[in-house]
Design goal:
The structure is a homotetramer. Chain A is of the alpha+beta class. Helix content of chain A is 42%, strand content 18%. Chain A contains 8 helices and 8 strands. In chain A, the strands form 3 sheets. Chain A has a 4-stranded antiparallel beta sheet. The first copy, chain A, has a two-stranded parallel sheet with strand order 1-5. In chain A, strands 6-7 form a two-stranded antiparallel ribbon. The radius of gyration of chain A is 21 Å and the shape is globular. The interface between C and D is large, with 51 and 51 residues.
Chain lengths: 238, 238, 238, 238
Amino acid sequence: MTDLTFRDDMTVRLVKHSASDADVVLAARVSTQGPESQSEVWGLGPAEHGLIRYLMRERHGSPFEHATMTFYVEAPIFVIREWQRHRMASYNEESARYRELEPVFYLPAEGRNLVQVGKPGRYTFESGSALQRETVRNATREACDFAWQSYRTMLAAGVAREVARAALPVNVYSSMYVTMNARSLMNFLGLRTGVDSARFRSHPQREIEMCAELVEGIFQTLMPVTYEAFNAGGRVAP
Amino acid sequence: MTDLTFRDDMTVRLVKHSASDADVVLAARVSTQGPESQSEVWGLGPAEHGLIRYLMRERHGSPFEHATMTFYVEAPIFVIREWQRHRMASYNEESARYRELEPVFYLPAEGRNLVQVGKPGRYTFESGSALQRETVRNATREACDFAWQSYRTMLAAGVAREVARAALPVNVYSSMYVTMNARSLMNFLGLRTGVDSARFRSHPQREIEMCAELVEGIFQTLMPVTYEAFNAGGRVAP
Amino acid sequence: MTDLTFRDDMTVRLVKHSASDADVVLAARVSTQGPESQSEVWGLGPAEHGLIRYLMRERHGSPFEHATMTFYVEAPIFVIREWQRHRMASYNEESARYRELEPVFYLPAEGRNLVQVGKPGRYTFESGSALQRETVRNATREACDFAWQSYRTMLAAGVAREVARAALPVNVYSSMYVTMNARSLMNFLGLRTGVDSARFRSHPQREIEMCAELVEGIFQTLMPVTYEAFNAGGRVAP
Amino acid sequence: MTDLTFRDDMTVRLVKHSASDADVVLAARVSTQGPESQSEVWGLGPAEHGLIRYLMRERHGSPFEHATMTFYVEAPIFVIREWQRHRMASYNEESARYRELEPVFYLPAEGRNLVQVGKPGRYTFESGSALQRETVRNATREACDFAWQSYRTMLAAGVAREVARAALPVNVYSSMYVTMNARSLMNFLGLRTGVDSARFRSHPQREIEMCAELVEGIFQTLMPVTYEAFNAGGRVAP
């Protein structure tokens, strides 16, 4: 029997970037300084911090577009699906037509709340009982195992990958490269994290929020002033 | 035991549209006629046919963007995934977080070629043997059945839909509304149909091609002159 | 001497549309109802009003994208420039390469405030003195007149339109067709009108605001429930 | 009298970039190699060259989107207008509302053809006579001079910049930052250069072609393999 791998985490790795707070300042200043804006932005002093906060508050979003980041991502298909709904980004993803997928599947970690309580539009999530956790664990594992056997059976019979993959579940891991600019990335964070202090509270599925949190950490490192202004402004993408 | 439904077809239904060949002519003429372009385009004579062919041939694509179509689509998730990679469109899709999915799954029809022959980048598809067909049939059906039981088991235990759906395969049907303009639609047709006469021959998976063929039929009906010019020009989106 | 025309107004005319509040409801319901969403939306009762307000408040913007409107616009080039910075739209504009422009120029109306008071980022506009008004009137008219003579002189000498037009001022009128969806249109309204009750107060130039007000009137007529929700939500595009 | 500056050239300066041929290879390989694609692309050998040519020929455009370039541009407004019609890019431009413009204007160089010969859709450009050249020179210079005096007169009278600028001609220089990815950039080159060997021959205005040629030189330096494949494939953006 094939060894299936079950993961409960996501991978978001920074591959390359051209992203700094100075990029925002440079682009913004062309509107008021024209050709004089070309001088290097050597450091970010109070004036530059203030400018970035001003742009965020007034929702002047375009200066944030010149900062770009490329991520390598591993996540289950149901997460990839949500991510790729964000159209202001560039994607290249592992293909189940051109490649046999690996038997790597998502299984919720211990801490993942399993039970939805409340009415549509007002759900909260609760942990769930030990029995419910056991049910998820077993039912998911068995379904993955069965699906994987079906996939392998078809491949072994000489059936095309693109036909055989129909049997695979949406929690199988896929991988992709994503390039986003900082404006689009903040929109992604605003919608895909559920932060109580946000001006518009979002309710993302926990699994894409795990990805968004990893993106957020990288973004904070690369563009700390922009990141602080984003939070100060209620996490509304400009 | 639940009754599973297996389908081998796709649904693409025109919901509404604001799309005609005259839209293209009107928009194109503003560049040469300015305010005089406003007169109604009452009919499409030889001059209008010629203009549309000219725009297509010279790849002046923007006049085709003012014609919009909204479709209702039913297709398996693996097809929806490919479709939604087209970013110049608007999508709203059935949510497995907000709704229990129906037990409707895709199973290839008799005529669907199952075997890939050749080297990467140069594959052709062949029918496959009776045994291979039987294997696909059984393995896919059983995988769907098993997955559905797992999904139902979790739901019955009170587990949230968004957690339980992880077990469902990518051939479960989803539904969505899509709005595209004629330019984007032609790009979709160029990439998602494999027509030998095309200047750039595409190799789409058969299942999304089935959707594209339905889209193509509707497009041809609504915008016959544009459609003819698209084909005459080698099916290259302008 | 050529008769120059001076205008102080903008033209925004609805050419065609596929836009109604019902479009929004239909698209939104697919997420919770899947195939059952297909039933016609016969009327908009309290449930539908509530749904639209909910989508606006929670910033679920995609259902608003299926409603599209096409406008015919006449405005000076400096306004067209601002409008075309909105990338989620389709444009075809009168070409000064393919067509001789008409001698129609923008001149501010009596009521247009002419004087900017205050510091960068905190300007207000005030009416200006009679002398200032006279200065604008004369200086603008004379500049247009002189530029027009230069343009005509070059054309009369057999110089190409695209070369001669370099002399024309940015207040010469151009014409264009624009297609926008309701989501993009609300973003346009949010940025190009300066309404005190808006959650994010914008400070557009008055001339593009005049266009935006005309767009707003048409939008209100076609999609009254969406329009009301847009205002109730602080004029933030979802 | 103010000293006006007349220029006959364009500025396109690379500000920053995250663009190399290796980016394309990395992103493309995720489709066939999934997680294994992560290994560094250390060099570009024959396999990598072949892959890039294959992607271009088959019009697999998305891998080219991860390479981004930011340019600083100085060009007359009529060129900026054409450039900003390309929506797959990010722009920040000098504002005539927030800043007094400089008296820098475009005047065609000696070599610029001035006369259009032929029928619509089939024009060629010819040099023009000495008299025509003299006419352009004088008429343009005088129009700029007159317009500039009108602008200064209004500003001196205390009129707002955004009102006064209405008098300025479309050949006044503006400045902007532009960020484009390599796919969008190739589309820009395809449309804004007129190269006889191109599969789809474009007929851009010479002045934006001058910008495009500068962009092309930078692109060729940063991504030589992609650039070669672009030319080999008839300069059709993938």
